[in-house]
Amino acid sequence: NAGVTQTPKFQVLKTGQSMTLQCAQDMNHEYMSWYRQDPGMGLRLIHYSVGAGITDQGEVPNGYNVSRSTTEDFPLRLLSAAPSQTSVYFCASGGLAGGLYNEQFFGPGTRLTVL
Amino acid sequence: AQSVSQHNHHVILSEAASLELGCNYSYGGTVNLFWYVQYPGQHLQLLLKYFSGDPLVKGIKGFEAEFIKSKFSFNLRKPSVQWSDTAEYFCALEGSARQLTFGSGTQLTVLP
Questions:
Q1: B32, B94, B102 member nearest A42 (Cβ)
Q2: B51/A40 Cβ within 8 A
Q3: E strands, B1-112, where?
Q4: Which residues of chain A does B4 touch, with a Cβ-Cβ cutoff of 8 Å?
Q5: What is the pLDDT along chain B (112 residues), one digit of tens a residue?
């Protein structure tokens, strides 16, 4: 099992550029989510999905789009990058038995800088 | 709305000292509570979780946490810390709508 994988590990964008952060999991988890981590603010939920074809907004969704066409993949799209989106992005997945999940597994993160 | 507060931003201890990290939450209903740890350069890992039952939960690496409903608290404890416990610790809450809310984190530095 590779667990949760994220690509790329590092990315530098210019303001206004668009890009997609990739996330994949091989644990057959229903629940997948994207967080951003900023100093002093912990992790904040951007978007999440409880299964293929189902997505919903988290705490800070503006400027980001997601889709879930398969159980395995949950890409995060930045439509027009802004310096405020400079952050470390984590993808996570978990099973949905007995509530939200028994445990969320996090990917290694993508460090994004927007100039 | 649900929120999590971690008031200790940075804690510095010597090896073998006891640890207690504070976590308070705000939510009016039933909660699931978690502590995650992020070692330097690594991604988050689950330390322990509370869903229901015994309010004292034990996790990996000798950590434990106590859920005190009347105080809306879920403090993390360890009787004797090691240098390898140096990391950032996050308390998290699942309240409604399958959303996980994290606290701002506590950086623990253990001096050898």
A1: B102
A2: no
A3: 3-5, 10-14, 19-21, 24-26, 32-38, 45-50, 56-58, 64-68, 73-78, 87-94, 100-102, 106-111
A4: 42
A5: 789 999 889 999 999 999 999 999 998 888 889 999 999 988 899 999 998 889 999 999 999 999 999 999 999 999 999 999 999 999 999 876 677 889 999 999 999 9
